[in-house]
Amino acid sequence: xxxxxxxxxxxxxxxxxxxxxxxxxxxxxxxxxxxxxxxxxxxxxxxxxxxxxxxxxxxxxxxxxxxxxxxxxxxxxxxxxxxxxxxxxxxxxxxxxxxxxxxxxxxxxxxxxxxxxxxxxxxxxxxxxxxx
Length: 132
Ligand SMILES: [Mg+2]
Description:
alpha/beta, Rossmann fold
């Protein structure tokens, strides 16, 4: 079985999806993208075996990032997938709420593309060490 390496980027802002996807692809990551929580859950359902990590916006209309996170982490089929909340909300209470719902990490949107890639790379390496 091949190692899951795809990153699913979920954000209702198209520019953020495009930029993040570009940075990750430059570092040879395979990416999947969508712009809503419901699409994200559908993709996870269909492709969970290929997805290593979900980079998840919190503030989205209808189904927000917390709800998507909860659905992923409460399902045995998918809860191995790393979920990193990706948001402009960087208040302590939001970080705490994310952690409580099972988020594996937290990235604030003001950071650079290199920082995003490095953060994801480190998290995946850490997870690999844990599972080996
Ligand atoms: Mg948003």
